[in-house]
């Protein structure tokens, strides 16, 4: 009798382990297809067990629009007419950008200031840069220490237009272009939107091109 009881207990745990593994496999496939994640670089941890009566072969998953791809989050598991919210943790390995040396505030960052390393992306602060090209030619707004991950909150665009300076304004329409000058009311870098005041006193908004001109599309 004891042997039979032990057999059923063992069978239960084996069944749970198989179901849990099967669920993890389905989740791996879901993230691989929906978010182009390489299964070699991420690991899924299930923080809440799936209810036994909600295990099925044709399962579906729904994620919030605010999913940021790392850390703890909820996912809706759908099995026929039944559903359950699961608490998952997604651990991702990948490359990110750190400071190769101390970068003093106000520096126009160059490639020699940066280093790319591999580590846990889910442990990084929000806004961490993953590509050097996204950081190069930006200006840091505070000192960055050696080996510190660089985030978008630490940098700003390199200003090619500064507030209260005269700028060239180009009004562009269908088959015509009007060029005039005005006063910049904001600081801004290439491809950023700023306000300018034209000679009539009217304030308009345009986008800075690589030459420091403000383009207004009519």
UniProtKB/TrEMBL annotation:
Keywords: Bacterial flagellum biogenesis, Cell projection, Cilium, Flagellum, Periplasm, Signal. Its main location: periplasm. One of its GO terms (cellular component) is periplasmic space. Coiled coil: none annotated. Pfam families: ChapFlgA. It is found in: Periplasm. InterPro entries: Flagellar_FlgA, SAF, SAF_FlgA. It comes from the Bacteria. Residues 1-20 form the signal peptide. One of its GO terms (biological process) is bacterial-type flagellum assembly. Involved in the assembly process of the P-ring formation. It may associate with FlgF on the rod constituting a structure essential for the P-ring assembly or may act as a modulator protein for the P-ring assembly. Belongs to the FlgA family. This is Flagella basal body P-ring formation protein FlgA. The lineage of its organism: Bacteria, Pseudomonadati, Pseudomonadota, Gammaproteobacteria, Enterobacterales. The gene is flgA.
């Amino acid at each position: 009798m004891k042997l039979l009881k032990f057999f059923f207990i063992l069978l239960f745990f084996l069944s749970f382990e198989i179901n849990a593994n099967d669920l993890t496999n389905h989740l791996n496939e879901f993230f691989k297809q929906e978010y182009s994640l390489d299964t070699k670089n991420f690991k899924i941890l299930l923080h809440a067990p799936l209810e036994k009566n909600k295990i099925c072969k044709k399962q579906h998953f729904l994620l919030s629009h605010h999913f940021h791809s790392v850390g703890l989050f909820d996912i809706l598991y759908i099995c026929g007419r039944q559903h359950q919210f699961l608490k998952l943790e997604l651990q991702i390995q990948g490359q990110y950008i750190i400071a190769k040396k101390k970068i003093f505030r106000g520096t126009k960052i160059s490639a020699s200031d940066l280093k790319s390393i591999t580590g846990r992306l889910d442990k990084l602060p929000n806004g961490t840069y993953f590509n050097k090209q996204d950081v190069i030619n930006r200006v840091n707004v505070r000192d960055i220490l050696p080996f510190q991950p660089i985030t978008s909150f630490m940098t700003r665009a390199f200003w090619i237009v500064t507030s209260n300076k005269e700028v060239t304004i180009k009004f562009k329409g269908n088959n015509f272009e009007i060029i005039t000058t005005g006063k910049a009311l904001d600081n801004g870098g290439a491809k950023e939107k700023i306000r300018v005041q034209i000679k009539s006193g009217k304030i308009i908004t345009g986008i800075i091109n690589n030459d420091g001109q403000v383009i207004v599309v009519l």
